[in-house]
Automatic annotation (TrEMBL):
Keywords, comma-separated and alphabetical: Cell membrane, G-protein coupled receptor, Membrane, Olfaction, Receptor, Sensory transduction, Transducer, Transmembrane, Transmembrane helix
GO cellular component, one term: plasma membrane
Subcellular location: Cell membrane
Pfam family, any one: 7tm_4
Keyword match Transport: no
Protein name from the UniProt record: Olfactory receptor 10G3
Location (main, coarse): membrane
């Protein structure tokens, strides 16, 4: 049998998302604006939660600060590379850079899944067990839970990166996507990817399904508790508190399920769906959690206004 000498790849070319050439400048400015506003908005929330004594010791806002940090990270590893697609020349990404991008995206993305679950559980305790909430969810416990989410996310990201890049890649090197993600990269492997696709489907499927099921269970209990509130104003405030979280979770989980829970498919809609967890959700989180949260808005006023505002509040 004749042996074929394959040259392993040292770089990949990300083709990006398809777009009309006449919109190149407009799309570049749009995603640049989204990236800048994402970083500024999440950094503002992070600083506000960290510096305000009324927020940084409360579990809900500890989780919110961690969420802002994750959003800044996901946006930074994806959006700048996406914007390069709208320049005249497409620059390749090194093999090691592709590994790092895939690892950090799945590390931060899975951590975000776990964090959304913790935030739903926190709201469940606050609304359904209000008298025991200070005992059941302390600042120390919430910090430990958030740390556990980081560790679990790191393990998940490492598993996916190792499984994906243990395979040989010998050409072609054009990734039909705007970042190095598992389905797009596996299509270039010079080996059978059946095991990888199965493990990816099971692993990500378990994370998404279990987290989403726990969130759904928490909110079923929350809705039942809210409906037992006698005053209309009390129900409105409770729904308003949880509405932001439900919105974000929906925008995040639906595209993820569409992308990863359909093994072997290659839909042109995958790229559009991936824009939500990588660019849109990190941009929307600061708006949703500040505009719908009176305590965060008051903390922002205290931080911007200084001693005078603090004394009035």
């Amino acid at each position: 049998m004749q042996r074929v000498n394959h040259t392993l790849l040292t770089e990949f070319i990300l083709t990006g998302i398809p777009y009309p050439p006449r919109l190149r400048t407009l799309l570049f400015v749009f995603f640049l604006s989204v990236y800048i506003l994402t970083q500024l908005g999440n950094f503002l929330i992070l600083v506000t939660v960290w510096t305000d004594p009324q927020l940084h010791a409360r579990p809900m806002y500890i989780f919110l600060g961690v969420l802002s940090l994750i959003d800044m990270g996901i946006s930074s590893i994806i959006v700048p590379r996406l914007m390069m697609n709208f320049r005249s020349a497409i620059k390749p990404i090194l093999f090691a850079g592709c590994v790092a991008q895939l690892y950090f995206y799945h590390f931060l993305g899975s951590t975000q899944c776990f964090l959304y679950t913790l935030m739903a559980y926190d709201r469940y305790l606050a609304i359904c067990r209000p008298l025991r909430y200070p005992v059941l969810m302390t600042a120390k416990l919430s910090t430990l839970l958030a740390s556990g989410a980081w560790v679990a996310g790191s393990i998940h990201g490492a598993l996916q990166a190792i499984l994906t890049f243990r395979l040989p890649y010998c050409g072609p090197n054009r990734v039909d996507y705007f970042f190095c993600d598992i389905p797009a990269v596996l299509r270039l492997a010079c080996a059978d990817t059946t095991v990888n696709e199965l493990v990816t489907f099971v692993d990500i499927g378990v994370v998404v399904a279990s987290c989403f099921s726990l969130i759904l269970l928490s909110y079923i209990q929350i809705i039942r508790a809210i409906l037992r509130i006698r005053t209309a104003d009390g129900r409105r405030r409770a729904f308003s508190t949880c509405g932001a979280h439900v919105t974000v979770v929906t925008v995040y989980y639906v595209p993820c399920a569409f992308i990863y829970l359909r093994p072997g498919t290659n839909s042109p809609l995958d790229g559009a769906a991936a824009l939500f967890p990588t660019a849109i959700t990190p941009f929307l989180n600061p708006l949703i959690y500040t505009l719908r949260n009176q305590e965060v808005k008051l903390a922002l006023k205290r931080m911007i206004g200084g001693p005078r505002t603090k004394s009035k509040v």
